[in-house]
Amino acid sequence: MSGDIPDMGMTTLGALAEPNRLNIVELLREGPLTVGEIAERLGLRQPQASKHLKVLSENGIVEVKAEANRRIYRLRPEPFQALDAWVKSFQRVMEERYDNLEDYLRELQGQNRPEQMHENKEE
Amino acid sequence: MSGDIPDMGMTTLGALAEPNRLNIVELLREGPLTVGEIAERLGLRQPQASKHLKVLSENGIVEVKAEANRRIYRLRPEPFQALDAWVKSFQRVMEERYDNLEDYLRELQGQNRPEQMHENKEE
DNA sequence: TTGAAACATTCTTTTGAAGGAATATTCCTT
DNA sequence: AAGGAATATTCCTTCAAAAGAATGTTTCAA
């Protein structure tokens, strides 16, 4: 409910979060491969390989080229660029305000400040 | 079966793949927050917020500081550095061998090459 | 010491995603 | 035309993770 998909493709992370899928991606890093080879090298059954590749494809992580009987899959660079940008934007922000934890503690104190007022609870 | 978790923390991706968790991370980017505030700002119930924060904590994405009644959560930089390194290692490889798809096609051809042999099926 | 605020934890239920097995589709070879 | 190879798809089952609801724990205030 009220699911706010923020800025970056949640979908990319979701697709990569599955171990077999991550393995496929790592494998494809060495170059394009057919479904059969992917399945063989990773010890997957062909249908499962196809399914995972479908998910990766739907999320733009991978693209297919039909070559007669075979389907050759390879990585697409875009999602990785996006991921890179996302992570970088994090690191910048985190370096800046690393230890303003104390700032926040002071904030919290400020709210509680009973200073001079008796039983005035503002809810 | 035969699940080979490659190099990089699959666990980080898994933790970030959940929408609410990703929202929490995006929120914490602005600075440390208590459980209550996180729940409120994201429209979550307190228990669910706690649970998600637990997962994030277990995966090293977040760390807690107990301050009396409150628990203050904030991001940890390490997982993001790791992610960054991982993504970068990809981009390097992908730039290099982007279009050796054709190389691969030639490879495939080579295997099939019936050239001069008759019905010698090596299985 | 009683109560309330802030969080965590437990138990149950629900839902979706992954695996298994069989079958459909396309294309090549003979 | 027939058969086989490579891949996709469907249906069913299984399993784990997320939501819901209730309750436990700690800490502070009066």
Automatic annotation (TrEMBL), chains A, B:
CDD domains to which the protein is assigned, alphabetical: HTH_ARSR (cd00090)
Residue ranges constituting the HTH arsR-type domain according to the UniProt record: 1-95
InterPro entries attached to this UniProt entry: ArsR-like_HTH, HTH_ArsR_DNA-bd_dom, HTH_MetalResp_TranReg, WH-like_DNA-bd_sf, WH_DNA-bd_sf
Record carries keyword NADP: no
SMART domains for this protein: HTH_ARSR (SM00418)
Keywords assigned: DNA-binding, Transcription, Transcription regulation
Top-rank taxon: Bacteria
Record GO terms (molecular function): DNA binding; DNA-binding transcription factor activity
Keyword DNA-binding: yes
A Pfam short name: HTH_20
Gene3D superfamilies cross-referenced by the UniProt entry: Winged helix-like DNA-binding domain superfamily/Winged helix DNA-binding domain
SUPFAM superfamilies for the chain: Winged helix' DNA-binding domain (SSF46785)
Name of the protein this chain belongs to: Transcriptional regulator
Organism: Brevibacillus parabrevis
